[in-house]
Amino acid sequence: MIPHIRPDLDSIPAYVPGRNHPGAVKLASNETTFGPLPSAAKAIAEAAELANRYPDNQAGDLRTALAEFLGVEVTNIAVGCGSVALCQELVQITCAAPTDEVVYAWRSFEAYPIVTKVGNAKAVPIPLTADLTHDFDAMAAAVTEHTKLIFVCNPNNPTGTALGRAELIRFLDAIPSHILVVLDEAYFEYLRLTPEDRPDGVELGRTRPNVVVLRTFSKAYGLAGLRAGYAVGDPAVIAALMKVHIPFSVNRLVQAAAIASLEARGELLDRTETLIVERERVRDELLAAGYRVPPSEANFVWLPLGDQGVAYTEASAAEGVLLRAYAPDGVRVTIGDPHENDRFLRFATDPAVRGRFTA
Length: 359
Ligand SMILES: *Cc1c(COP(=O)(O)O)cnc(C)c1O
Prior knowledge:
Blueprint: E1 25-26, H1 38-48, H2 60-70, E2 77-80, H3 83-94, E3 101-106, H4 111-118, E4 122-127, H5 136-141, E5 147-153, H6 165-174, E6 180-184, H7 201-205, E7 211-216, E8 229-232, H8 235-244, H9 252-263, H10 265-288, E9 300-303, H11 309-318, E10 321-322, E11 324-326, E12 330-334, H12 338-348, H13 351-356
Parallel strand pairs: 1-10, 3-4, 3-5, 5-6, 6-7
Antiparallel strand pairs: 2-8, 7-8, 9-12, 11-12
Helix pairs in contact: 1-9, 2-9, 3-4, 3-8, 10-12
The protein binds pyridoxal-5'-phosphate.
Domain Aminotransferase class I/classII large: 25-345
Function: Aminotransferase that catalyzes the conversion of aromatic amino acids and 2-oxoglutarate into corresponding aromatic oxo acids and L-glutamate.
Protein name: Aromatic amino acid aminotransferase
């Protein structure tokens, strides 16, 4: 007999792993194409020799390194098994009843609806504006007495769009201070807005105890396979996160690799410059070919192809280019190495492809 499982989990789609064709170019997961730096690889190898020992459950050395880097206290930082784990833990520390509400923009990061449902809370998705940015007015208007948590993904995955500092401040000022606002800045390192306009959640959070910022080692820092992200926020929020943290879920290898990568951040951040040149080149060529492509502040671009997206990614996969469709809205294209981007552009700008996909 099948054991009893929470029936509300039926509404969560089962995980479908991404396809992996041998020889194909993978532009589907917003990963960095480079392997870890030699110093990070060495730290990983050394940590592996202690794999029989549990990791530091408090991740003390990593949190100390992050605190120094960000100019905050250790008590302002929690680490998680990827920032996606912190998303789930943030629902856990704020929502306790099925009537508790989590507000987020949609389309946005696919984990938000899932962690909300896993946390047995009520999702309140707010459609993006016509130019595919967060609709802050509508999000603020959606706040009710039941609202416990708000996710703001800036830059937004999968549209790549970002809102500037002034708009973000106006939004934060409109939200009652007892509601936790999560600024998910997974793509912070790829932002190229002007210094005055650049939204920096850590700065904005210094005077706002209801703001918590999420960043990750998975994207610009190139450690997606090892799993570490971090939250920066008020010590009360951080202390609660540590209570629901799955013990030892941030492993020894990633703690060592993250510290080494932070020390070598100059080199890692230099790589983002090359990526941004490619991002703008890919976008310009797509625009020239007649696509609509919103400006991107991340390491991917978005093609709002609507419900043609799935057919588009099937056609690209047949040409050896793996992209991510988000039915029914469009397709996300990760920026890879120049030769990978060329392969995608060859497909995308092919007149036969342009003729078939008219959006
Ligand atoms: C990739 C991503 C994350 C983090 O991923 P982890 O690998 O779990 O750290 C978080 N938020 C958004 C919006 C992302 O795109």
